[in-house]
Design brief:
Structural class: alpha+beta
Helix content: 25-40%
Bound molecules: histidyl-adenosine monophosphate
Oligomer: single chain
Radius of gyration: 28 Å
Number of helices: 17
Length: 427
C-alpha cells in the first residue's frame, strides 16, 4: 500500500476556505503600512545561524532551544553547502543584515520597512504555538531616530492593525529596559536580590539565573511568580535620562488615547532590546496570549557591523490574530462569472478557446471538460462552483455562431452571438 504523507508537526495548511481571512489581514496590514509611509522588504527564509545568535543573544531561549538548522543532506553533492544556516526564527535580524549589506543608511535618513512572512522555531507545538508561523513586522532604522514619539507611533500602528483586523480589546503592556548600562546594573541588582531565593525557582529559572537572569522575571510558573512578586520591581535601575525617556513615551501614548499597563516584569526574550519594550495580548487566547511584541533596539545595527544608528520595531503573529478573532468571516472568494459547457467534441474545441478569451478579458471563467457527460451533471458542477452564468455551446448554437447564456439566479436564457460574448459578460 502507498505511504500516506502527513504535514510536519507544528505546521499547518492554509486551506482555500481560510485564505480569504488571511488575505484580508495581509491586505489590511499592507494598507495601514502604506498610510504610515512604510515600504515592503522581503529577505530570505534562511540566513547564517550566527546572525541570529549575535542579534537575539546566544543565551536567549530561541537561540538555545528553537533554532531550526539546515544541514547538508547529501555529502556527495558538495556544491550545496547548507551547514551554518538556519531557518529564520524572526524578521528583525535579517532586516538589519539587509539594511547594512545594502547600505540603506546611505539612501535615506530614516528607513521604514515592513515584512510579512513565515518564521520558524523548533518549539513544542500547542494551540497558538507553531514551528512555522507567520508574522507581520515593521522596523524603523536610522541615525538619531530615538524619539519617544516614534516609539509611541509604532505601538499605535501595531494596535491599529490589530483593531482593524477585528481584535477586540487588545491589552498593551509596557516597560523600559533602559540603556545597555542600565541593563547591566539591573542584571547585577537582580542577581544579588534573587540569590537568596534561588532554590525556590524552577529548574529552568535556576539555569536562567546564570545565563539570562531577566527571563526569571517573566516565568509563568507560580513558584517563580511568587519569588518575583516579593522583589516589588520598580524603575530604580534606570538612569535619570532613561526614566525621562520612558515618561515621554507614556505621555505620547496618552496623547494618542492608547491605554497601557506598566509592567516592570516585561523583559522580552531577545537580547537586543534597549529602552522601550511592549507586548500586546488578548484575553481570548489561551496560554499563548501574545498577539505581538516589539521595542527599541539601538545597538543592534552597530553590533552586527553597521553604523551607529537607532532602531525600533514590532511583529504580530498572524495565526494568533486569526485565533483571537475566530468566527469572523474573511472576504469571500470572487464568484465565478461564467461556466462553459460544451455538448460534443466539436463544440468543446470552440468552448476551450472561448474560455481563454474570457479570462484574457478579465472575465472569471471555468469550463467543464466533460462534454460527453449529461447537461444536468454539468449544470450541477456550475452550481457547486457558484457560477453566475452558464454558457452552453451545442451544435445548434455553433451553426449560428452563437452561444446560450443561462443566468443561474433567474433561470433566464438568451442566445448571444459568439463575437459579442465578451462585451455581453462585461456589461
Ligand atoms: P516575538 O515576541 O518573538 O518578537 O514574536 C512576535 C510575535 O510572533 C508573538 O507575539 C506571536 O504573536 C508570534 N509568534 C512568535 N512565536 C510564535 C510561534 N511559535 N507560533 C505562533 N506565533 C508565534 C519578535 O519576533 C521580534 N522580532 C519582534 C520585533 C521586531 N522587535 C523589534 N522588531
Amino acid at each position: 500500500m502507498a505511504k500516506n504523507y502527513n504535514i510536519p508537526r507544528g505546521t499547518a495548511d492554509i486551506l482555500p476556505a481560510e485564505i480569504g481571512r488571511w488575505r484580508q489581514i495581509e491586505d489590511e496590514a499592507r494598507r495601514v503600512f502604506g498610510v504610515y509611509g512604510f515600504s515592503e522588504i522581503r529577505t530570505p527564509l534562511f540566513e547564517e545561524t550566527e546572525l541570529f545568535a549575535r542579534s537575539m543573544g546566544q543565551t536567549s531561549d530561541v537561540v538555545q532551544k528553537q533554532m531550526l538548522n539546515l544541514a547538508a543532506q547529501n555529502p556527495n553533492q558538495p556544491g550545496v553547502e547548507l551547514s551554518g544556516l538556519s531557518l529564520r526564527p524572526e524578521g528583525t535580524a535579517a532586516v538589519v543584515r539587509s539594511y547594512i549589506q545594502n547600505n540603506l543608511d546611505r539612501k535615506e535618513s530614516r528607513t521604514k520597512l515592513f515584512y510579512l512572512g513565515a518564521m520558524f522555531r523548533g518549539e513544542r507545538p500547542q494551540k497558538g504555538r507553531l514551528r512555522q508561523f507567520h508574522q507581520i513586522g515593521a522596523e524603523v532604522i536610522g541615525p538619531q531616530t530615538t524619539s519617544p514619539y516614534l516609539d509611541a507611533e509604532m505601538i499605535a500602528l501595531s494596535l491599529e492593525i490589530l483593531r482593524n483586523c477585528g481584535v477586540a480589546n487588545p491589552k498593551l503592556k509596557l516597560n523600559s529596559l533602559g540603556t545597555p548600562e542600565d541593563k547591566e546594573n539591573s542584571s547585577k541588582q537582580l542577581r544579588e536580590r534573587l540569590q537568596p531565593a534561588i532554590v525556590e525557582l524552577c529548574e529552568d529559572c535556576q539555569s536562567r539565573f546564570e545565563r539570562n537572569i531577566f527571563r526569571v522575571l517573566d516565568c509563568k510558573k507560580k513558584t517563580c511568580n511568587a519569588v518575583v512578586d516579593k522583589l516589588q520591581l520598580g524603575y530604580a535601575h534606570l538612569s535619570e535620562e532613561s526614566r525621562q525617556y520612558f515618561e515621554a513615551v507614556k505621555t505620547a501614548l496618552v496623547s494618542l488615547g492608547v491605554d497601557f499597563e506598566e509592567s516592570p516584569r516585561l523583559v522580552r526574550g531577545l537580547d537586543y532590546y534597549t529602552h522601550t519594550v511592549f507586548e500586546i495580548s488578548s484575553s481570548s487566547l489561551g496560554s499563548q496570549d501574545a498577539l505581538g511584541a516589539g521595542g527599541r533596539y539601538n545597538n543592534l545595527v552597530r553590533d552586527l557591523g553597521g553604523s551607529a544608528v537607532d532602531a525600533v520595531g514590532f511583529a504580530l503573529g498572524i495565526e494568533r490574530i486569526i485565533l483571537a478573532t475566530e468566527g469572523q468571516a474573511g472576504i469571500s472568494p470572487a464568484n465565478l462569472e461564467a461556466f462553459i459547457v460544451a455538448l460534443d467534441e466539436n463544440t468543446m474545441k470552440k468552448a476551450f478557446v472561448l474560455s481563454q478569451l474570457l479570462r484574457q478579458n478579465g472575465v472569471s471563467a471555468d469550463i467543464s471538460y466533460r462534454w460527453n457527460s449529461a447537461l444536468k451533471n454539468q449544470l450541477n458542477q456550475a452550481n457547486k462552483l457558484g457560477a453566475k452564468r452558464v454558457l452552453i455551446l451545442g451544435p445548434d448554437e455553433l451553426a449560428k455562431n452563437a452561444i446560450t447564456i443561462k443566468d443561474m439566479n433567474s433561470g433566464e436564457q438568451q442566445v448571444v452571438s459568439l463575437d459579442q460574448v465578451v462585451s455581453h459578460l462585461k456589461k
